Known about the structure:
By secondary structure, the chain is of the alpha+beta class. It has a single domain, classed as Aspartate Aminotransferase, domain 1. A hairpin with a 2-residue loop joins β2 and β3. The protein has three helices and six strands; from the N terminus they run αββββαββα.
Amino acid sequence: MTYDQKLSERIHAELQGLPFVEKKMFGGVGYMLQGNMACGILGDDLIVRVSLEDYEDLLKRKHVKLFTMKSGPKPMKGWLMVEPKGCKSSAQLSVWVKAGIEFALTLPPK
């Protein structure tokens, strides 16, 4: 499994103080809160899980693309991929990780 280790360290810093679990998935890594994925990394891209209400608007942002699994071309609604340029600064990354955290915490614990 290859994914951006530096991005992983940056996400760890954003999640500091929260009871998160790191889990290998998608050929990358996911960060779980209460058993629900908030964000993750696949290759060099950040994966973020967001509400369906916010999904379409967030998808229009620069450096954001659909999240699709390699096993099929169908995009997964509510899941986004943010290219490295979209989370280059600490402020950019913080916005995305916060969005994932906020959504994950709305879901029932697993």
